[in-house]
Amino acid sequence: MIEEQKAEFFGHPKGLYTLFLTEMWERFSYYGMRALLILYLTKHFLFDDAKAGVIYGSYVALIYGLPLLGGIIADRYLGMKKAVAFGAVLLVLGHLSMAIEGPAAELVDGAVVRTDSQLSFFFLSISLIAVGVGFLKANISNLVGALYSREDSRRDSGFTIFYMGINLGAFVATLFCAYLGETYGWRYGFGVAGIGMIFGLLTFIRGSKNIGSVGLPPDPILLETIYFGIKAERLIYFFSFLFVLIIWGLFSVLEDLGILLSLIGLPVLVWLLMYLFKKCNRKERNQTIVVLVLMAFSVFFWALFEQAASSITLFTDRNVNIGTTFSAGMFQAFNPLFIVVFAPMFAYLWIFLGKRNLEPDPGIKFAIAILLVGIGFMALVVGAQFAGDDFRVSIFFLIIMYLFHTFGELCLSPVGLSMVSKLSISRIAGLMMGMWFLSSSLAGYVSGLIAGIMSVPGELGSVNQREISLEIYTQNFESLAFFAFAVATVLFLLSPFMKKYIKI
Question: What pLDDT sits at residue 194?
Fold first, then answer.
């Protein structure tokens, strides 16, 4: 299958072109919504910071946790191609339904009054999106990995180019959707995100021929098997929609879905460990354990990094001097912009160092990433010392924070995707990619809890309240920075012990 791929896209298989564009549009829809979500929760539904953080964290947890299930279903039944296409359909439905805004919550005699039906419909929308991402996310990343042999030196470079597609879509969406949503109405921002996902679906359908035979169902006959008078493939789609309704119900009742992480993650982790010791040789087992250890450390990185869409966006709205031209959500665009600018440099850097046997191993790259995210938070702490009389921080320090966080992301995320696809046992590749996203799921939930800790009490907007919020944010950003430095130090010390197991 790999031999069928020809180098036609910047020295890479042509299939990368299709997957690049598909992921670009999918990330356009996701980041368009992400730029608005915490502001939508606090300004439209009038949730306090803590409750908004929990809902946001639960949503992100589902976004990154459900690819585990999507990977398993693709491995055993659908294949990666069908899983990606079905996920895209669910995403179109979810994002477009977000455009049905409904009446805003109101303060009546000091109490928040919300339309229960509209809140319930919102939970249905994010449930569709979460399950859709579950089918698409892990499998499209595995499709990229399947285009290369394990020994192909272009793998890290290819994943970095793929990562550029993610962030090109994120950059445009963050600016466009955030501006429309905060200026003209939430429905316009969410609606444009949905239109972007339609383009993603069409791109994948039309470009599937470029991928060739990669990602086909492992056993096509199994999908044609009849159960209860219905083909197995249709039953998968039916139960997937049923799962959407289950998630919707849980969201409507609990709002905090952190418990699902335990219900999904712990049984899978136990099964995986049993599988490693019963079905795998020593080399396979050691490589997989190293991957799991690095996944655990990635949780720390993503829990801190995801503050960009929660506490940092609220900090930007309240305590950064952004002027009147731009909205708070738009500043999330700095991250994807820096990715697009610097990703080619990092891709070249890894190739340059690799040819000279100087490339750091994944453990060192992960440690550098965590160190950089800590430096980013320290930039905000320093900026707070130079705040004006209105207790607003210069935008310069916010940009510096995004720059360091982006450098950290480039040291970890594309490298992590490549590492998982390269070191994972082929017969459970989808499961391992799902585990990678499950670690991000846990990080997303923790990020929401962290954002909730930084909750600012009282009515916002006055100078006095900005003084209070600046103090709260500064203290917590400093704590997060020192925590990152400690975690990075531990990983630097562990990396030499893991290095020998990373080599193929």
Answer: 87
Written as one letter, the residue type at 44 is H
DSSP-based three-state secondary structure for 112: strand
Q: Measured between alpha carbons, how far apart are the two ends of the chain, in Å? A: 21
CB-CB contact of 451 with 330 (8 Å): no
DSSP 148: S
* Of 97, 75, 87, 101, nearest in space to 26 by CA: 87
Please report which confidence band the pLDDT of residue 489 belongs to, taking 50, 70 and 90 as the band edges.
very high
Q: Which domains does the chain have, with CATH numbers?
A: 10-502 (1.20.1250.20)
Say what the pTM is: 0.79
Per-residue pLDDT of 376-401, as tens digits, reads 999 999 999 998 888 899 999 999 99
The rounded Cα 504 to chain-centroid distance in angstroms is: 28
- Tell me the C-alpha distance between 207 and 211, whole Å: 8
Alpha carbon separation from 98 to 36, 102, 191, 223, 468 (Å, rounded): 11, 10, 7, 33, 34
Q: Which residue, 316, 214, 244, is CA-closest to 94? A: 244
- DSSP state, residue 309: G
172 burial (CB, 10 Å; 0-12 / 13-18 / 19+) is buried
The answer to whether the CB of 123 falls within 8 A of the CB of 252 is yes
Angle at 61 between CA 157 and CA 314, to 5 degrees: 90
- DSSP string spanning 390-417? T--B-HHHHHHHHHHHHHHHHHHHHHHH
- Please count the residues of the chain: 504
Structure tokens at 31: 């980041």
Alpha carbons 423 and 283: distance in angstroms, whole number: 10
Q: What is the per-residue pLDDT across 58-117, written as a single tens digit (0 to 9) for each?
A: 888 888 778 778 878 887 888 888 888 899 899 999 988 888 877 888 878 777 787 777
pLDDT at 153: 65
pLDDT at 2: 46
Q: Are 204 and 213 in contact (CB under 8 A)?
A: no
